[in-house]
Structures are given as structure tokens and as C-alpha cells.
Specification:
It is built from 17 helices and 2 strands. It is mostly helical.
Length: 498
């Protein structure tokens, strides 16, 4: 068995051990964890076990450790300044990853906690394992040094580009920390894009910026929440029409549950292959991805059908056990929420780790080769560094944005939480195939708003929604302004010319 297969087997086994433990409930009650002040040692369990399992069973521990220890030799050609740059990019890269974990992980886990399916502690355990697995195992081994191709740095002075990447990391991380402090769920990709725009203007002028590409990023401010809201609105409308608006809703739910499970597993399979594993070269064409997702959907449908056969039967017109029926439906939707959250967290770790490690890999390549490229080879230890930062950020400050998504916009329940996750996942799949520019963060918030507009009896905090929208609008310019400020300070401090 190859090393890569051993790594996959290790993570699957680890998740299989931790997931049932994390999902354990107290009877049929779903609890919201109020213990938001978590000890930092809590992150060490999933962090240590996941990282060590992936490294040791993948045969990467010695190789990655020796490479990381010998990193100081890369900066020799740039002298003392190069060695300082190396330390700075590693520290700021870890800081950026921490900020991503503190803010963006709410995309996957906010609905699970807000709907009382998982406690905050359980959500952090699951997210930590899945985020770290996605970052370390499915993160790209070749990454863009400039996110979204905002500008081409290849013809610019290497030292200035290296310092620019360092400044962009710090700027994006600082803005994300400010947003997290206020509980604003903002796009980490937009944060790093904004800072890269500022650096590009400072080094090469406004003419080097790909304004059309930046326009697509701006367009996602509109397309993401609209698509997410529309998909969640449609999903909830269909469920209302087929199930929820009838007096025998539980009986109807049991009838449609296998078909619903097929669609959920199918969509999550598409998310896994098109987004979570897009950096892993499986050589799978769209047809094979579709068939594989259908197989996954069939497995989910069969499993749901077998589970329903073991559940108490519901007869038409029976109304004496409405509480047990509600608990049964909550159990079904709760399981699907946790499942979708796991897939989304894995996909998030695999993709958004590039926001932290892309500039890190770019600076390391500059220090090693003295040249600037648009793409860089990413070593496994750099992916692991990004995963570590994401997990620590999640475990220490993640509760702030999770609370906003899960309860401050509006109160959620297992049904609405499930609809939000499924609407967001559907949007991601459709956008991936149609080429629409979207932001996962904006998509999920849009899905929350779509449910709120449909469920008129559920009160939305309009003030909080306006606050979030304003934070989206100022993310790119804030990143650019901070990056320009930090770059100017570092350029003067290190006496760089050009």
C-alpha cells in the first residue's frame, strides 16, 4: 500500500474514532454550549493525534522535520535580511492561519452549534480533525503565490516581492482578527486579495493589477448571498410543500427521507470531489465524479432506509406522540447537519489553507532561488503549519463568529440548520461547474437570510445583517490599506530600495 493511501487510512480511522465520541448526546436533548472560554490545551487532542497520525503513517515525519529544520539555509543569499524575512513569513503565516481558523470555520460549524445539534466543544473537536485533515492531506502541493492572479509578480524585484508577501499576510491576518473580535463572518480570500492589491500597487503601480479579475471578486459580493439564499429558499419551500405543511408530516418525512438522504450525500460527494479534493490529482473527469457521487448518494439512501426500519413506525393520523416524532425528525436532520458540516470543514481546510501558505511558499521560493514565480511548490510541513494554525484559531477564538452565524442573525433549529448547510453546499457545486465567482462565507450567510425570508415567523436581527454587509464591503479596501502601511514600514526599516 502506498504512502498516500496510508495517510488517507490514518485520517479515516481517526475521524471514525473521534466522530462518534463528539456526537454523543445526552438523551434526546440538544444542548448549546455556553462555555465559550475554552482552554488552549483543548486543541492539543485533535491537533496532536491528527497531525502525528498523518505524518507518521504517511512516511513524511522525518522528511518534513529535516526540511523545516534546514530552512535557515535558504536565506543565506539575502544575508541577515533574508533570515529575518524567513522568520517573519513563518510567524505571519501561522498568524494568518490562526485568523482563518478563528473566523472562517464558522462556515461549517455555526449552524450545527446554533441549532443545538452539537455543543461548541463537540463542534470544535469535529472541525479540528476535518480542517487539519483537509489542509494537510488535500491541500495543494502547488499553489498560487498571488491569490486569484490579482497581479503577475514575476518581473518585479525579488526582495520587494518577498517583503510584499510578508506584509500582505500580516495585513490580512490583522483585518481578520479585527473582524473576528466583532463577530463579523468575512471572507478570508477577500482579505488576502485586498492586501495583495495594495502590495501590487506599491511595487508595480496600478497598471500591474488585473482589474477584471478583481471585478469578479467584487461580483461575488452579490452572487454569493443571492445564490445561497435562493438555494436554501428553494430547499425549504420543497420540504414545506412535500412534508412540513401536512398534518402527517412525520409519516411523509419517513417516506421521503431515503430520497432526501440520496440528494444530501450526492451533493456532499460533489463538494468533496470538486472542491475538497480538487488539489489532489485523482485523474477523475466530471462523469466519474458524478457517478462516484451517485454511488455515495445510494449508500446514504440505503443507510437511511435501514435506520428508519429500526425506528418506531408512524401511522397516519397518529398525534399522541408528537414529542417523540419531533425528536425523531431532529435526530435525522441533526445527523445530516453534522455530516454536511464534516464535508464542508474538510473542503474548507483543503482550499482556504492556501490563503495562508501561498505567500509563505512564495517567499520561501524567493529566498531559495532568488527568483519570483506565480506558482510555488508547497512542502508537506508548510501545509501542516497552515493546518495547525487553523485548528488553534478555531479552538481559541472560533466561538465568536460561530455564535454570530448560529444565533445572532436568527435562532436556528435542526431543520433550518440542515436547510442552510444543504443550500450552501448546492450553491458551491453549481458555482464550481458554472464558473460563478462565489465566497463560501457570503454564500452561507445568504443561505441563512434565505431561510429567514421564507420563515417569516423567525425574527432576523436586521441590524446585525447590515453590520455584516458593511464588513464585507470594507474587507478588500481594509486589507489593501493595511498592506500598504505595513509594507511602507518594513521597507524603511530594512532599507529596501526599488
Amino acid at each position: 500500500m502506498g504512502r498516500s493511501r496510508w495517510r488517507w487510512l490514518a485520517v479515516v480511522g481517526l475521524v471514525g474514532i473521534l466522530l462518534p465520541t463528539a456526537y454523543r448526546r445526552q438523551g434526546d436533548n440538544y444542548h448549546y454550549a455556553g462555555d465559550c472560554t475554552l482552554n488552549w490545551r483543548f486543541a492539543l487532542v485533535p491537533l496532536g493525534s491528527g497531525l502525528i497520525s498523518a505524518l507518521v503513517l504517511g512516511g513524511k515525519l522525518d522528511e518534513s522535520f529535516s526540511e523545516a529544520v534546514n530552512m535557515e539555509v535558504l536565506a543565506v543569499s539575502f544575508g541577515v535580511t533574508g533570515q529575518v524575512m524567513l522568520v517573519m513569513v513563518l510567524v505571519f503565516g501561522l498568524y494568518m492561519a490562526w485568523s482563518i481558523g478563528a473566523n472562517d470555520v464558522a462556515n461549517a460549524m455555526g449552524t450545527s452549534v446554533g441549532s443545538r445539534v452539537l455543543t461548541l466543544r463537540q463542534a470544535i473537536i469535529i472541525a479540528a480533525v476535518m480542517e487539519l485533515a483537509g489542509a494537510a492531506l488535500a491541500g495543494g502541493h502547488v499553489t498560487d503565490t498571488v491569490r486569484k492572479g490579482i497581479f503577475d509578480p514575476s518581473g518585479l524585484p525579488p526582495q520587494l516581492v518577498a517583503m510584499g508577501f510578508i506584509s500582505s499576510l500580516l495585513a490580512a491576518a490583522v483585518w481578520l482578527q479585527v473582524a473576528t473580535w466583532f463577530g463579523w463572518p468575512v471572507s478570508t480570500t477577500h482579505s488576502i486579495v485586498g492586501s495583495i492589491v495594495g502590495i501590487g500597487i506599491m511595487i508595480g503601480g496600478v497598471q500591474v493589477i488585473e482589474w477584471r479579475t478583481l471585478g469578479k471578486v467584487v461580483l461575488s459580493w452579490v452572487t454569493s448571498p443571492l445564490c445561497g439564499g435562493l438555494c436554501s429558499f428553494v430547499v425549504l419551500a420543497v420540504l414545506k410543500r412535500l412534508v412540513l405543511s401536512h398534518s402527517d408530516a412525520m409519516l411523509r418525512l419517513q417516506r421521503v427521507a431515503p430520497g432526501l438522504a440520496f440528494y444530501v450525500f450526492f451533493i456532499l460527494g460533489m463538494v468533496l470531489f470538486l472542491k475538497g479534493l480538487k488539489n489532489v490529482d485523482f485523474g477523475m473527469q466530471l462523469g466519474r465524479v458524478f457517478v462516484s457521487s451517485c454511488v455515495l448518494g445510494f449508500v446514504g439512501a440505503v443507510g437511511t432506509y435501514m435506520w428508519l426500519r429500526r425506528s418506531p413506525k408512524v401511522e397516519s393520523g397518529e398525534g399522541s406522540s408528537s414529542e417523540s416524532h419531533a425528536a425523531e425528525s431532529n435526530r435525522l436532520f441533526g445527523f445530516l447537519i453534522v455530516l454536511s458540516a464534516c464535508f464542508l470543514a474538510f473542503a474548507h481546510g483543503a482550499n482556504d489553507v492556501a490563503n495562508a501558505i501561498g505567500p509563505v511558499a512564495g517567499v520561501i521560493q524567493i529566498l531559495r532561488d532568488g527568483t519570483v514565480n506565480t506558482t510555488s511548490i508547497v512542502s508537506f510541513w508548510i501545509l501542516a503549519l497552515g493546518g495547525i494554525g487553523i485548528v488553534i484559531g478555531l479552538a481559541t477564538w472560533g466561538y465568536r463568529v460561530i455564535e454570530t452565524v448560529g444565533s445572532k442573525i436568527m435562532n436556528l433549529n435542526p431543520l433550518t440548520g440542515f436547510v442552510i448547510n444543504l443550500g450552501a453546499a448546492t450553491t458551491i457545486v453549481l458555482a464550481s461547474r458554472l464558473g460563478f465567482p462565489i465566497s463560501t462565507t457570503h454564500t452561507l450567510i445568504g443561505a441563512v437570510l434565505g431561510v429567514g425570508l421564507f420563515q417569516t415567523e423567525m425574527k432576523m436581527d436586521v441590524g446585525k445583517v447590515k453590520e455584516i454587509i458593511v464588513s464585507w464591503l470594507i474587507t478588500v479596501p481594509s486589507g489593501a490599506i493595511l498592506a500598504i502601511a505595513f509594507y511602507s514600514i518594513f521597507k524603511v526599516t530594512f532599507g529596501l530600495s526599488g
